[in-house]
Amino acid sequence: MDLTIFLLALFDGISYAALVFIVALGLTLIFGVMRILNVAHGSLYAIGAYATVSLTGFVLSLGLAPVLSFPLMLISAVLVGVLLGGPIEWLLLRRIYDKPEVLQLLVTFAVFMILEDVQRLVWGTQPYFQASALQALGNVTLFGVTYTVYQLILLSVVAMGLLFGLRFFLRHTVIGKLILATTEDREAAQSIGIDADRVFLFTFIVGAVLAGLGGALASPTTSILPGMGADMIVLSFAVVATAGLGQIEGAAVAALLIGLGRSFAIYVWPEVAVLVPYLIMVLVLLVRPQGLFGTSVARKI
Amino acid sequence: MKKLLLTTAICVAMPLAAMAADKPEALKIGMTTFLTGPASVFGVPARDAMDIFVKNLNAEGGINGVPVEVTYIDEGAGAEALTSEYRRVAETEGAEVMLASISSGNCQTLAPLAEDLKVPNLMWDCGTQRIFEEGSYDYVFRPQGNATSEMLAAVAYLLKTHPDFKTIAVVNQDYAWGRDSWDIFRTALEVMKPDVKVVGEFFPKFGAPDFSTEISRLQALRPDVVLSTSWGGDLDTFVQQAFQRGLMNNSTFVLPLAESSLERLGSSLPAGHVVGARGDHYFLHPERRDDADFQSFMKQYKEATGDIPVYSVFHASQAFAALKTAYEKAIADNGVDWPDEDQLLAALKGLEFQGLGRSLHMREDNQGVESQLMGTSAQAGEYPFATLENIMIFDGEGLLPPVGETSIDWIKGLDASFVDGLTVKTYEN
Fold this sequence. Notes:
The complex is a heterodimer of chains A (about 300) and B (about 425). By secondary structure, chain A is mainly alpha-helical. Chain A has a single domain, classed as ABC transporter involved in vitamin B12 uptake, BtuC. In chain A, about 75% of the residues lie in helices and about 5% in strands. Chain A contains 12 helices and 2 strands; from the N terminus they run αααααββααααααα. The longest helix of chain A has about 30 residues, at about 5-35. With about 425 residues, chain B is α/β, with parallel strands linked by helices. Chain B is about 45% helix and about 15% strand. Chain B has 15 helices and 16 strands. In chain B, helix 6 packs across helix 7 (about 175-190). Classes of the chains: A mainly alpha (about 300), B alpha/beta (about 425). Chains A and B meet through helix 1, strand 2, helix 10 and helix 11 of A and helix 2, strand 7, helix 8 and helix 9 of B.
């Protein structure tokens, strides 16, 4: 393998990792704070993509500039977070925080199944494609290989921005500190006057916005069709489990590991590319069952 | 006296009534099709078309006065649910004929089941060539071609239009169809153009959302030809991503199923790439587009769905035509009001019928002989998506192995002269 091929595989791996990381970030944030593995995260991702495609299609049909698709991504993501994420936490999850984990998993799985059918009802079964955002940014050529600026640069920049933004938000703002305090010990936080219900609601909405944003950002690069959410939840779960549940920086490292592993596999041994994310997960979990960056927690009785 | 006459009349009429009872109130048929899942890009259009065929036939009075009723079974529900539904529709609901299926895997499960249940089954859309090559059936018929004829037509068209290419790479979905179709394609290339080098073989997982890495790899490899037998969302994504990154300027794409994606791909499928249609299926079929039945169906379909029909609609039309023609033939041959099962099966043997494409016939092994249409994409401006030019329609006969031979063994015995021996008609567009 010469240096060019190595660099090409590196670029591909990074842009793939960026997208997976954005989705995994929301999943791991929700788990870190609320101790709930939200399977419906995959649906929120898919609906974010569908909403972006519909909104962009509508705006373009009015004859407006394709650049507008960027703010529309953000709008779609916020809509998904507030209109779907909010009610899910407020109406359902709030009632099951002290129930067994299996039940919590089943409830979010049920929400996932319901939302999958909702997508089919609203958007049908035919694939959608809306790439105007990606085309608006053009291409760059590196070592004779053409990349889209959108996938290679924009996605990586957004992923980095989100990583550092979220770090800063949690450690250096009041709301962030409230979230960390609630995460550490919910009862103690409540006893000093923190409204844990509101913190949970807020966290869940932020997580859902991140899922929607992942879908919105993915939408110009891929066909939007039923089932895309299921694939993404499996992959982002692999990232989150490899990193250790609730580990934000760890998720970034794990996404990179998995993204790079996959792209190098396609260059070297394409037959195993599909397996790579899960092989990495299994290997990591065999050695460190709590994940790369996870800490073993003493069980509270 | 009046009473006596009436009684006599009833007594005379009785045996007639008894004979007419053989004619069912409705001809019930069951059809398996994907209503959910990725393959619903084929299944839903086929169902919509079937509804139109049935409505039109019933408006004309059905088959010999018997209206047709279809029950649809969703193939997307999984193999287990599918077989039990199939059994229920064939046995409990009393469907006289079954149409199954789209997925080759499902055909391989349902063909033996149809044989067990003794229900005539028309394999209306699945591609696998194995069914009649590895087994023999009395109740199973295929009113369409198979993977062998489809892939050989693609190879023949490629060799006729791009005789000088030296390298090829493949990007197929990682499941039975993606692997089997590449097997046939590669085997044919090896004997017909042995100097071609295969520089890359990629089998991304079924439903993969991203082909960026494969595309980077292909850009570094620079193959003359990129083959992909993918379909649905996978094909759309692959072509869009390849188009966005300029790969389609450097390599000629050969896309044997792209007819079904033309409308969705819009301007993302540039001119100059090879498009196939799994048979002679094209909404501007050069030999059929001026025919009244073709035009009136296109109009009805457009009104019902807003889309142009894709190949699965043509396959449904062929299965429906085979069904209708077989009943009419059995009724005429036997001079009955309604045929029994043996009479229907006898009529299906060697049947000639015509759907929306060219006319077809069944071989003695129940495999249909279907013409194959291939073309080159062109952005002519008449539609907001690519249409075809330099269209070739190959006769189906030369594209199938002789009865009793398996495809791969037969192809291995072919050579470069095969392409010249095919009967083909060429149209500008």
